[in-house]
Amino acid sequence: MFFVKKIAQTLFILWGVVTLSFVIFQLLGDPARLIVGQSGDKKTLENIRKSLNLDQPKWKQYTLFINDVSFISVYNSTEIVEKEIKGIFIGSNNNIVIKLPYFGKSYQSKKNVIDILSEAIPATFLLAFFALFIASVVGIFLGVVSAINKNKILDYCSILISTIGISAPSFFIAILIAWLFGIKFHSVTGLNFTGSLYEIDDFSGEKYLAVKNIILPAITLGIRPLSIITQLTRSSMLDVLTKDFIRTAYAKGLNKTTIFFKHALKNAIMPVFISITGWFAELLAGAFFVEFIFGWNGVGKITVDALTKLDYPVVIGSIIFSASIFIIINVISDYVQKKINPILN
Question: If 227 and its partner were Cys, which of 133, 162, 184, 300 is the partner (CB 3.0–4.6 Å)?
Fold first, then answer.
């Protein structure tokens, strides 16, 4: 029943996102003119509009758009060849296809948008994973230290840092960290202002792994969840430390380290873990400007670059893809939370 309800909600939300994307696409101007530029002749414009179905009524354009972005679609043989559709073909005429969404082709590179996104997805997922890992480890540690040292200097410092992390805009933090550690103290940190996971050697031309380039964007992206996890861990720890079993542990003569980390943290970590499971989708959605500022070649940077170049198929594809991932991960997170905490059922 849970999955049936969630699938229905997910399909409805995705339909809303796709419909909104179609409306935005209609308001962005003439795609044919964007493809050929201002010097294109009338005949060329007409041919492009026909190939993009822009000569059809709006309701039919919407129907064709839904057909393209759906996982199950119906095409004729000509469309399959022109759009380079790949998937599982059903029926004697192979007109029904189970496939990945088709978002069209980039105005700039002429590549299928789904291929462009597929190249960027691993980098975005890796960045979000590292950001969440840093936020979880450091946030839990600071939260525990803050709770243990309640109303002491370490506690006040932890609260101040986490409050700043929650309040400060992400783009400002990104610019500050990039300038501070990537430029001002580059000679000390050795970290670059911008850089991707893989870089090209200037002399040999070989592609090599540059893991250090993920450090600054991951820290920047993880600051907000780190701050929230810190405060949540502190609050949860302080609540657990007032329980009877903690007083019993003290009465048995157990040392503070055992009480704090074996008994208190073990019971305080549950609400923190539930919070962490919901943050991965947030980080994927929030990576756009962080990737752009640090030159990290993920979905976010590709989207911002496409927006500056008016490459709208890439923009629309990124929006629908990001929304879909966000919704799917949240559904999985809700399911995990219900399994972990039966009270939520």
Answer: 162
